Structures are given as structure tokens and as C-alpha cells.
Amino acid sequence: MLSIRGLAFASVSLLSLSAPAFAQDADETEKDEAGIVVVGTLIRGTEVTGSQTLSVDAAEIAEKGAVSTNELLGLVPQISNAFNGRFEVDPRGVGTGLSINRPNLRNLPGANSASGGTALVLVDGFRMAPMGVNQSSIDVDVIPSAVIAGLDIVTDGGSSLYGADAVSGVINFRTLRKFEGIKVDLNYGKGDTIKGYSYWDGALTVGKSWATGNAYISASYAKRESVLNNETTWYDSKIYNAAGVGTFTGTQCDTPQQTVSRWFRFGAGSSQFTNNPAAPGAGTFSLGTGCDALGEATYSPEVKRYNVYAAVTQEFGENIDLRVTGYWAKRDTILPIVPRGFTSAGSGVTGGTLVTMFPAAAATTPGTTFQVNEGVGFRFTPNAAYVNTPNTVGFETWGVTPELTVKMGSDWQVKTTAHYGRSDNYQSFPSTNTVLAQCYITGCAASGTTPAIAAGQLNPLNVAAASAAVITDITDFTSAQQTKQSMFVARVVADGPIFPLPGGDAKVAVGLEYQSNKAQSRLNAGRFGAINNAAYQSYSRNSKSAFGEVSLPVMPFLDLSASLRYDDYSDFGSTTNPSLGAAFKPTEWLKIYGHWSKSFNAPTAVDGLGIATGRFALNQYVAGSSDPTRRPSDPAPANDLGFGTHAMILDGTKKGTRPQTSESWAVGFEVTPNSGLNIGAQFYSIDFKDILAAVNPQNLTTYTTNPELYYYNTGPTTFPATYAALLAQLTNASQISITSDAVAFVVDRRTSNIGTAKIEGVDFHIDWRHDYDFGQVSAGISGNKQTKALTNFGVAVNELPFQPAITAAFYTGVKVGGFSTRVTVNYTGKFTDPNPNNAGTSGLRVNPFTVINLAMGYEFGEGTGALEGTSLRLGIDNLFEEKPQTTRRGSASFIPYTNWTIGRVFKIGASKKF
Known about the structure:
Blueprint: H1 2-10, E1 21-22, H2 25-28, E2 53-57, H3 58-64, H4 69-72, H5 91-94, E3 119-123, E4 148-154, H6 159-162, E5 169-175, E6 181-191, E7 198-210, E8 213-224, E9 227-228, E10 239-240, E11 246-247, E12 257-265, E13 273-274, E14 283-286, E15 298-300, E16 302-316, E17 320-335, E18 341-343, H7 354-357, E19 369-379, E20 391-407, E21 413-430, H8 434-442, H9 468-475, E22 478-501, E23 504-526, E24 537-555, E25 558-569, E26 573-587, E27 590-601, H10 605-609, E28 612-618, H11 619-623, E29 646-652, E30 660-674, E31 677-693, H12 702-705, E32 710-712, H13 719-727, E33 743-748, E34 752-771, E35 776-792, E36 796-798, E37 807-816, E38 819-828, E39 831-833, E40 844-846, E41 849-859, E42 870-877, E43 885-886, E44 897-898, E45 905-913
Parallel strand pairs: 3-5, 29-33
Antiparallel strand pairs: 1-2, 2-4, 4-5, 6-7, 6-45, 7-8, 8-16, 9-15, 10-11, 12-13, 12-14, 12-19, 16-17, 17-20, 18-19, 20-21, 21-22, 22-23, 23-24, 24-25, 25-26, 26-27, 27-30, 28-29, 30-31, 31-34, 32-33, 34-35, 35-36, 35-37, 37-38, 38-41, 39-40, 41-42, 42-45, 43-44
């Protein structure tokens, strides 16, 4: 292995890689007549003033051979949730309603708590219809890679031009302006580290040009196989004690697990018993050996994706151009789950009723324990009728965008753009009908439309003996949700010169925009398909906007810009956001620039629905306790009152949320001593306020910093009324069967404006390219180092130690004729693990994570006969099988590895244009 690694580094100067290039002047000033959309400005013929632009071109995109468009975002170190790791939602997040993937530019906190995004995604400079079950943003997988001409990112706030969601920056995908001919693209990837991993995709693009226009359509399909946790070597499902002994802790297993509660008698009185684990020998225990409760869950989901994209352009004379684009996309994400099971009801005994329910307890000597048999945990897999139906999440979306450009006199232009789109988003999480399961064990009387059920049809100790009808009846149950969203937006922009200045013409852009968003959602916990009979909740909102931008080339060496936007929303009011930029070029090879702006992320129509749901978990899920009957330890004061064994968790969004807001500034420089070398850096600062987020109950400090979000069961006097009031706020209240006496406490995790953050850091880059007689050689580095990350969600926390010290992409390579070969070295720096190991030790060092990717390609040029128009690609991701660092955990609440990878993957691809 060392010799292979040495050989790779020895030959690295002969290679190049896909990495973001920082846009240079020649790239940014391409003529608008060619259809180039310069993100970050609405004025033709100008570049962004005072901000940096990161760009990825079509060649880099093709050579990446990405599984999805989302994976392309991993080329950019500034997109923290995609670079050098997982480019899609963690499967654990999917279970809480995260149905789409959104880029987190600048690593802003609470990125998955708000329904909207803090990085605005555009296509050809314009919005698309939002998506998501409990979200309202863009998943970039709707944009097929076959039609992407480039990717540009402005890393500064952009609300002064684009309105909501541009808090951390704007990501713009440029599509092909025209295409002629027929092109076929095919890609295939196969895992080496994880043998079961594979994917393939194919695309067909057909286009035709005529004297005054062009039309093309592209259709594609992609499929990726799933990976389970136990198919990796770094996912450890065991829980370890302080001595390092690991055991499986699953209590719903193929082999039934009997549970017992042991009561310690601390006095002579009949009620002087406690099952608090703090008492000697007391607590709830499983008599079995436990089983793997996580290994068969999803590490990386199966994905099926369909895309269609079309564009038509037509010139009407010399002054009128019309372009219409349309898309349709459907993606289904399938997540295998641990086989379903059930735990039969326990005794229901409390300290005060122990002797009454179990008279033998009266003979217990003070200072000893009395044991009560409780429920039995089991899985349904031993029964031949059981089908382990996976979780499914998906969307189907379409939209159309017409754009009419009218060229006026004196180089003025009016561009009118509109978009209408819809999305249908859905999810289904199969579970167990717990009421029926218990009825088949102990029997139930007839109730309403439900007939009487005889006891003994399901034996927890012999599940295989149950009839197929019983198993099917119990497992025909799922928690489903469906959300439909639509958006209409229309914008008119006029831009042109207003007067001359020493550095060129002063230019201005002014415009108006109208946007209407609608959302409707329904959810149901019941039999498969029952959601189709549920009613929708609906919400709609609109906004009216006016904006303006001015570009002032004051001197040949000094450019200034300013923009201002006013947005008036029908539900929460108005907001005004300005931006100022400056660029100073004292010499041809040096540019110093800076900007200041305000931005916001508005509550969405999905937020307006105010959907809130309740779910239950044992206390150990919430507090990391070693015993499920123990309440979380509240340090001031102690609240282990002994009521209930479950925690109720409220999810969703509170009504009346306000916009998240930010104020940001940045200053940077670029040095270009020659046409092939670009060196630069930028310092940025973001003051992020009113952050939409949810309290984290695994952080014990939140019990005291946010006490208003915790409702403790203090007994039957007051808690039942509190519990009933909370239930009344839940959409799924009628489907919750646990009574207040079984609830230890309630955690309100509904999203609200509870946080603030101050984020600062430095972007840096070096790009070098040089042409030799044999070809072109390139090399460089781009990356980010965060220097401040202070958050406050009830208490001020310095997050900086718990984030990678630096993220960077190194690259180098060569192109010779039709041959090119590229290497990327993606580096994620060290950081501190905030979660404890099995010994309860936090603050452990996580070592740097370095992944090397290799890509090679060959393009057959003119005169190559039947191969003309053919390009071939070969790639190896994670060339040296870098694996995540693992840590033995003492709680299932924390994953046992840091960083993320699929391991080594071999990739091949081919394209043919006719």
C-alpha cells in the first residue's frame, strides 16, 4: 500500500483534478448575448463587485462522474455538508422528516431545522418551485447533470437582489443554452470496499437548431443500490461499558427478550419501594442477551431517479428573444429498516401499588429487591408471513420558465421572466400497530367498528406460530405524510447605462417581482394507503418586491456597486435588505475587494401550516440514560420524580415564526501576476440572528437553558391538564394512545426562532495553469478555514473546536491532446469529538480525513472515424480506501464513527455525440 501511495504522489504533477476555480475577469465578462447568466448581479456586462465567485465548468462536472447533481456540490469546500463526506441527508434525519437535500454554504447552524434554505439555489439565475415534505427548498437533483453547463457560487448574502434564502450565498446552475445533435451519456460505478454498492445512470439528449433558434430535450435515469450499516467495517452497533466490553442492546429480537423490573425496599412501609436505578439492584433489566438494533438499518439508501429537461429558444427579429425551459423529475429513496417488532405490555405497577398487585412483595426484607416480570420484546421475522417493508421518501416535481428579452435603444434591455411549478412530496415509515399487537396477545373487547379479538393468537415467545392473517393485520401500519407545494413567480428587470464615468458607463438595473406560494399537507398513522382518505391542511402566502442595483466604475481602478430590495409578505410583514460592494485595482495584477449586506430567510408556506406531531421514546433515547425508567437528570433542581417511563417529543414548526436574518461583510484580494496564475483569499463575517432551530434534548444543559420547552410530570394534580393542552396542538393527537401517567416528560422540539450565531472564516485559493508544447498542466488548492463559530440556543457555545479546522481541495494534472487525467485530494482537518466514548470521556481528537480521487478521460476528436464524438472516462473515488475513525460508544444516541465515505469505488463512463 505504501508503494502505491508513494507512486501516486510521485506522479501527481502529471495529473489534474475537479475542484472549484475562482472566476477570473475573462470568464465573468462573457457577452450576455451568448446567454451567460452572471450570478450576483442583474446588470449585463458587469461582474460581481466586492464578492468572490466560485465556478465549476462542464468539463469538471463530466469528469467527476457524480452519482447525482447533489454530489457535484462536494466539489466545493465551502459547502460543509457535501464536501468530503455525505452529500445527502443522513438516514437518521430522514426519519424525522428531512426528505430533500439542501446545501449548507458556510456551515450555518440549524440548517436542517428551518423548512427553507439559507443558501439560495437558482437555475439560470431564477427560482424553481420548492420541494419537501416538511421542507420548502430546492433539491438540486431536479437538474440533470447532462444539461449542466456550469456551476457558479457567490458566497456572500444576496437578498438585496434575490430576496429570501440568500443568507450565506447564491448557488446558480447554468444549463445548456442550445444543443444540436444526439448525445448518449452512460456511467457505472462499483464499490470495492463495500462490495454490494453500485450505481448506474444514462441520459439521452436530442437537439435541433434553425436559423433563428434551437430546441433540445434531455431524459435520464439513475439507480443506486443501498448499503446497510453492517456492510461497512466502521459501523459498530454494540454499546460498550467503561471496561470496553461491548454488547448488543436491542430488546426486540428474533429470540424473545423478557424484561423484569426490580424494586428495592428502602423501608418497612408497603409503599416504600423504588425501581430507581440509583437504588442498589433496582431498575429495569432484560434477561436476554440483546440483539443488533442498528446493523440492518440504512447507511446509504437506494435511489431511483428520473429526469426530463427541455429548452426552446427563438429570436423574433433583432430585438426580441424568447426562451422557455421546462423540467420534470421524480426521485424515490428507499431506506431498508431493522425488522419490525413489538414489546408486550408490562405490569403497570408503581411503587405505591406493588404490594397490592403482587402480595408476595410484602415479604421482601428491607434492603433487598423484589422482581416483577414485565413485557417481552420480539421481532416478527420468525413468522413466514412477515415482510420487512422499507421506509420510502420521494418527490415528483415539474415546472416551466418562460423568459422574454426585449432590447431597447441606447443599450437598454427589459427582461421578463416567470416560473410556475409544482411538487408532490411523500414519505412512508412502516411500523407496528401496537394496539392490535397487544390485543392479539391479551385479547380485546369489541369497540366501535373493531370486532372482539380473542387472546392468545400471538404468543410473544413463539411468534412463528401466529397465523399469517394476524401478522399481516399487525404490520399493515405506517406513518405517512404527503405535502404538495406550488409556486408562481414573475419578475421584470430593466437594465442599461445611465451616464459615463472615467472607468466606463455607470449602469443600473431596476425591477419588480411578485411571488405566490401554496402548501398543503396531510399525515396519517394507520394502514397502508389510509392517507389517501385524509384531508389536507392548506396555507398560502404571497410577496411583492421592488429592487434596484447600480454599478459605478468610478475610475479605471475603482468599481463600486450598491443594491437594495424591499419585500412585502402577506403574512409576516415587510423587510428591506441593502448591499454595498467595492473593488480596487491599483495594478493590473492586484484586486482588493469587499462587501457588506443584509439578508434573510423567510418563513415558508410550509411553516405557515404549523404542523406539529408527537412521538414517544424511552427516556434513554432522549437523555442517554442507561436505564429506560430513569428521567433525565436536571441539575437545578433534580427532577427524577418517578412518574412515567416514556418521553413525548413534539416535532414540526410553531406557528408565528419570524424570518432568520443576517448581516455579513467580507474583504479579500486576488493576485494575477500572469494569465495562468490566480492567488487570493477572503475574510468573511456573518452575524446570524433569529435562527430557526429545535432544542437538542441530548444536550443536558438545555434542561436549564430552555426550561420553557420541557414539561415534567409532577403528578396527577396538574400534569394531565398540561398534557391535554399539548395534545390539542398536535396534528396526530387522535393517533396517540399513551396516557399522561405513562409520560415522564414532554420535550417541545418544534422549530422556532431560538438561536443566534456569529460565523467568521477565511477562504483561500491558488490556481495555476500553463500551456506547454505537449499540453496543459494545472495545479492548485482551494479551501476554507473557519475562525469563529459562536452559537447561542439558550447558552453561548464555542462550536469551533467541534468543527474541522480546515477543509481544502488540492488538485494537479495534465491534458495532452484528447487525454486528461485528474487527481483530487480532499482534506478535512482535525476537530474535537463532542460526544463521549464508552468511558464517558468527551473532547477526543478526530484526526484529519484525506480522500484521494483519480479521474482519467479520453476524447476522440475530428478524423477518428466512427469514434469521433466519443469520450471515455475512468475514475476511482477514495483511491486508498480511507476509512472513518471509529470510537467505542456507551450510548446508541451517538454514531460510532466520524466522517463519511462509501469506501473505494471504481467508475467508468462513456459519451457519444452523433
